[in-house]
Amino acid sequence: MGSVPQQPFKKVEKRLAGKAALRTDAATSARMGRIRQSGTAPELTVRRAVSTLGLRYTVRNEDLPGSPDLANRSRRWAIFVHGCYWHRHEGCHKATTPRTNTDFWLNKFSRNVARDAAARVSLKRRGYQVLTVWQCECESGTRLTARLARLPQS
Ligand SMILES: [Zn+2]
After folding, report:
1. How far apart are the first and last CA of the chain?
2. Which residues line ion ligand 1, judged by CB < 5 Å?
3. How far is the CA of 94 from the centre of ligand 1 (A)?
4. Residue 116 in 3-state DSSP?
5. Which terminus of the chain has a smaller tally of CB atoms within 10 A, N or C?
6. Ligand 1 centroid, distance to 111 Cα (angstroms)
7. How far is the CA of 117 from the centre of ligand 1 (A)?
8. pLDDT digits over 94-151, tens only?
9. pLDDT at residue 38 tops 80
10. Is residue 3 helix, strand or coil?
């Protein structure tokens, strides 16, 4: 998919994880929960691919449940671009579990997963078709195109 420089997405995640691991108190946890990366490499890849399909979208849709990364209100679809680590891509090698403070992390991960599921349900209730694209799927142009082919064409 071209040669756009890749943002060190994994590095950012590791840095955030490293900081939180030092202080795993409630305040840190709350702060971490609010951290939302926007314009990450996988997200930019998805935006590009969606544009290539000729579909229009808006980004940072904070008025919609879960703030989908891309959305089209008139066509009623929403896309979440999820980091495999934070959002626990099942069976993915990127979804590792830290060996220290394991309970804390498992707890945090399960809250993320629950929040994601709630957002999807909420959007579907509003008549949205919801697509979750995983970070690892963005590494392959064909895999990504296959996923996006399910979106209603405009
Ligand atoms: Zn993955």
Report:
1. 23
2. 84, 89, 92, 94, 134, 136
3. 6
4. helix
5. C
6. 18
7. 17
8. 999 999 999 999 999 999 999 999 999 999 999 999 999 999 999 988 889 888 987 8
9. no
10. coil
Q: Indicate if the pLDDT at residue 63 is higher than 70.
A: yes
Mean pLDDT of 67-80: 96
Residue appearing with tokens 């840095």: 15
Centroid of ligand 1 to alpha carbon of 51 (angstroms):
23
3 state SS of 78 = strand
Distance 99 CA to ligand 1 centre (A): 20
> Where do the domains of the chain lie?
9-148
Which strands, in side-by-side order, build the sheet including 70-72? 58-59, 70-72, 77-82, 129-134
Question: What is the band of 11 on the pLDDT scale with cuts at 50, 70, 90?
Answer: low
Would you state the pLDDT for residue 147? Answer: 87
* CATH class, 9-148 region: alpha beta
